[in-house]
Write a structure and sequence with these properties.
alpha+beta; 7 strands; about 160 residues; Aminopeptidase; seven-stranded mixed beta sheet; about 35% strand
């Protein structure tokens, strides 16, 4: 790091595509956000699949993502499979730009409609999704298993791009 680098402001957060090389980092982030975390092997498999689009959130000059979103594209529709921000990125307004960039990438690939599921009690995620224009289209009772053994509903949502 140069002398100037030590005293200059870090660049803002940015979003970049991710590949299989990020699998272990994504698994680590996912484990901080979900009771049933996906493994590195699961992420490697997904990231290697055709039709999977993954975007990472990078803070400042860091070379490892602090968050990510992963979607599966089939013809002109996509499903957001998972979104997670690491503890250092939560509550700082990073989810919306990450998702906005991801949705723009999906739109550029010809996606017209995006689907997702979210835990009914996840107020921060619901607020972001609703601000982006997602509409609730269904509810799956008892879909998610919490770490304490209880079950909660999943809301299904969709957005036309």
């Amino acid at each position: 790091m140069s002398f100037l680098d030590r005293f200059s402001r870090p660049p803002p957060a940015h979003v970049e595509p991710l590949g299989t090389e990020a699998a272990s980092r994504l698994a680590a982030i996912h484990a901080t956000a979900f009771a049933r975390a996906w493994s590195t092997v699961e992420f490697e498999g997904l990231l290697g699949e055709r039709g999977i689009i993954a975007d990472g959130l990078f803070l400042g000059r860091k070379s490892r993502p602090a968050g990510f979103v992963l979607s599966r594209v089939v013809v002109d529709e996509a499903e957001i499979l998972t979104v997670a921000l690491g503890p250092e990125a939560r509550g700082r307004g990073h989810a919306r730009p990450l998702l906005t960039r991801h949705l723009d990438n999906l739109s550029r690939q010809g996606v017209c409609r995006v689907h997702l599921e979210v835990e009914e009690g996840n107020a921060p995620a619901l607020a972001v999704y609703r601000r982006l224009g997602f509409q609730e289209i269904g509810r799956r009772t008892g879909y998610y298993l919490k770490s304490d053994g209880t079950r909660v509903a999943a809301l299904t949502m969709a957005l036309d791009l």
